[in-house]
Amino acid sequence: MRDEILIEAKNIKKHFPIKTGWFEEKKYVKAVNGISFHIKKGETLGLVGESGCGKSTTGRLLNGLIQVDSGSIIFNGKDLANASKQEWKKYRQKMQMVFQDPYASLSPRMKIKDILREPLDIHFKNMSSREKDKRVEDLLDKCGISRFHLNKYPHEFSGGQRQRIGIARALILQPELIIADEPVSALDVSIQSQILNLMKDLQEEYNLTYLFISHDLSVVEHISDRVGVMYFGDLVEMGTKEEIFNNPQHDYTKTLLSSIPQMIPKARRKQLT
Amino acid sequence: MSDLLQVKNLKTGFQTENGFLPVVHGISFHVNQGEIVGLVGESGSGKSVTSLSIMRLFHDTRGKIADGEILYKGENLLTFPEKKMTKYRGKELSMIFQEPMTALNPVLTIGKQMRETIMLHLGMSKKEAHQYAIEKLKLVGIPRAEQVMEDYPHQLSGGMRQRVIIAMQISCNPSLLIADEPTTALDVTIQAQILKLMEEIQEKTNMGILLITHDLGVVAEICDRVIVMYAGRIVEEASAVDLFENPKHPYTKGLMESAPKIGSKKDRLNSITGTVPNPNNMPKGCKFAPRCPVAMPICHEKEPELMADGNHSARCWLLDEEVKKKEEMLNA
Amino acid sequence: MSNLQTETALNIEPIKTKSDHRFLQFWRLFRRKKPAVISFYFVLFLFIMAIIGPFVTPFDAAKPDYNSVLETPSASHWFGTDEYGRDILSRIIAGARISLSVSVSAVTLGAIVGSILGLISGFFGKWVDKLIMRICDVLFAFPELILAIGIVAILGPGLNNVIIAVAFFSVPSFARIVRGATLEVKEMLFVEAEESLGASRLRIMFKHVFPETLPTIIVYYTMNVGTAILAAASLSFLGLGAEPSSPDWGAMLSVSRDYIGTAFHLVFFPGLVIFLTVLAFNLLGDGLREMLDPKMKD
């Protein structure tokens, strides 16, 4: 089971045009510059890198929010490159996203109940209203939000609670893959750990596969099985968590690792050196 | 020990439609000459409001300083007329903000912005100010400083912009620098560079720095002394070494344990339950009691004072010998 | 998962606000904006008059009384009488129904068509957007009133055609403003989130983007009613709208301009009412914008 590949990206590429003058040569930002990787069923692949390295674009390419320029994405053995709109809709059911900003990713004028029912309304037109309600309530429970809050609006919740709702929304269609784009970056440290624990528990319970995108190496190290390091659109290093963190090969990975602040006070560090 | 900045019983809050809402509840602390002090807290702890209070940068919000004293070199900043305060800002006390883009004027070149501040505060001629600005840019490690003087803010990267801001803020040799989350918007590699830069500059100029951050890692990196805030109160204060090696307040402990550490084999993080209390609806006793793993009955009833043990103090009933004894007797 | 539940047991307390109902919160804030509140009551009063006016007028608005022609304001005729001895106050009250129904239906029509065009234009972009916006540009090139006169000239005079004309020239402005709002909302993260859930474009457009543009539409609608009242009155003044004998405010002005030197009150009161009504709608719109437009919130 653990060796079965769920999704594979083969040499995917995405260049965004930059606006230039009429007569100048067209220029492009090489957001994702032909990268390949795969994620096995049930594992967590962490994707780290600094701003502008293309890690978020990679997540959106997998999910089809942005179309690839070239290369192919194979999900459950099927190439998504030539998939029709209808087929994409089916795949979306199986791979869901969790976004960074829990304040902006929930529709502000909808009640929590409706936000969570929305995916079911889209994909399961025949499901009875009662069944939908039950699913919503069960999942909210799992994500640590009481069902008394079903009729509240997103602005009535704190950041951590909103991210729980965002996770519940992503899980309601019972997906196999969750693409989490910086899911804890906007949260306070104490809340961040709650969400990370929640994601781990949910992964165990539902046998989820995660693509965990983050700029924070310690968070990635904590949650991932394997890690990919991105730098200016390229995947410069890829390996198991132990390989990357204990024995980095690429210079950039080494710089990145040495930049993480350690929880060792300055005075002590000076004594050590 | 000369106190550069001394904050005494500062109470700050916001004027809302339901009356005055206190955010900072009578905090007292000091920053010495040549010392980097970290002010740590999560959102809602009141750490940023504290920094704005010191700079008195409140005029366009509903913020209001209700009580207390802010002594800078022995003078109470709160009694200054606005005009005098304006002269002090930038010259005596400087501030660096989280987002470097918003602190720069997008339509003026870096050179023009730097020259103006320098000419205003140091009374130099335009030519002198220009040379002086280049010197300062070089000091913060900006290559080709002459060219950067002609650049507009958007032409620089985030890290470069933050360096420019630092150059600008230290250009008038302030004695106190307040840095409010100066590296939060930056990438880790850039963060490491900026922190190192701040440390170097502090050593060169011997100014005092008040570093406000949510990140204990950043604090460990450069601070000498640390103040931990929670719900508008100081809950712990100690030297960096004492704080990291022997945290006394359960909140500080919780913060340290909830951050993932590289190399640890733990599958789950020890997180702090619940969320920061809403200012409208504060718990009665210790403000941390509802989230505290070791809360006792008294914690929900009465708020503890800041209890000092040498230079290490914490606001927790566990440090009170009498309470501890009673608790032990109850448990026995 | 038991540890998960205990861990989050404390997390379930939502942030409490003083009053739960959104409308009440809205009203509490709105109440502080004095000009807007006064305008709101004035507009409310006008609408009530438009509905019950005919039953409360002191005199019959249409019945001539040749014994009291061109009387100046007095205790019995507060606003005086016109050249046929008709009570001006009664005519103004009766006219409220005409003015309001014309302007409200014209703006409603214009808002519906314009908003849909703007929504489509902003949401789908590309050539659809270019086409719709170029058509709007062409319409904008005409001064509004000239455009309306042209339309009425083609369709013939009468209140129904005034409604069509006023609606027609409010379409492009609604289209443009809704397009702007749509472009802004379209970039918001929750729209992307909906897309990633598999929601169709039409669903996203109507269910998620449209509600976000609604505040803008409401504000603009309110202000436009004021403009429409003025436009309708102008058309009637020019003899292209309401029958000259009807108590329409513009028509009243038009008929009485011959008496401007001899009986000033004939022009003054209808003019004053038009002025106050337009002002009230504009102030109300301003107040609503401060409340609803997130960019203007402090």
Structure, described:
Chain B: Residues 5-256 form the ABC transporter domain. Chain B: Belongs to the ABC transporter superfamily. The complex is a heterotrimer of chains A (273), B (332) and C (298). Chain A is α/β, with parallel strands linked by helices. Chain A has helices at 55-63, 85-94, 112-123, 129-142, 159-171, 189-206, 217-223, 241-246, 251-259, 266-272, and strands spanning 5-18, 27-40, 44-48, 70-75, 78-79, 95-98, 177-181, 209-214, 226-231, 234-240. In chain A, the strands form two sheets. Chain A has a six-stranded mixed β-sheet, sandwiched between helices. Chain A has a four-stranded antiparallel β-sheet with strand order 2-1-4-5. In chain A, helix 4 (129-142) crosses helix 5 (159-171) and helix 5 (159-171) runs parallel beside helix 6. Chain A is globular, with a radius of gyration of 20 Å. The model of chain A has no long low-confidence stretch (mean pLDDT 88). Chain B has two domains: 3-92 and 174-331, Rossmann fold (3-Layer(aba) Sandwich), CATH 3.40.50; 101-173, no CATH class. In chain B, the strands form two sheets. Chain B has an eight-stranded mixed β-sheet, sandwiched between helices. Chain B has a four-stranded antiparallel β-sheet with strand order 2-1-4-5, with helices on one face. Chain B contains twelve helices and twelve strands. In chain B, a hairpin with a 2-residue loop joins strand 1 (3-16) and strand 2 (19-32). Chain B starts with a strand and ends with a helix. By secondary structure, chain C is an all-alpha fold. Chain C has a single domain, classed as MetI-like fold (Orthogonal Bundle). Chain C has eleven helices and no strands. In chain C, helix 4 packs antiparallel against helix 9 (201-237) and helix 9 (201-237) runs antiparallel to helix 11 (265-292). The two termini of chain C are 43 Å apart. Classes of the chains: A alpha/beta (273), B alpha/beta (332), C mainly alpha (298). The A-B interface holds A 50-51, 158-161, 188-194, 196-197, 200, 215-219, 221-223, 245, 255-268 and B 42-43, 158, 187-192, 195, 199, 214-218, 220-224, 239-241, 243-245, 254-256, 258-264, 267-273, 275-276.
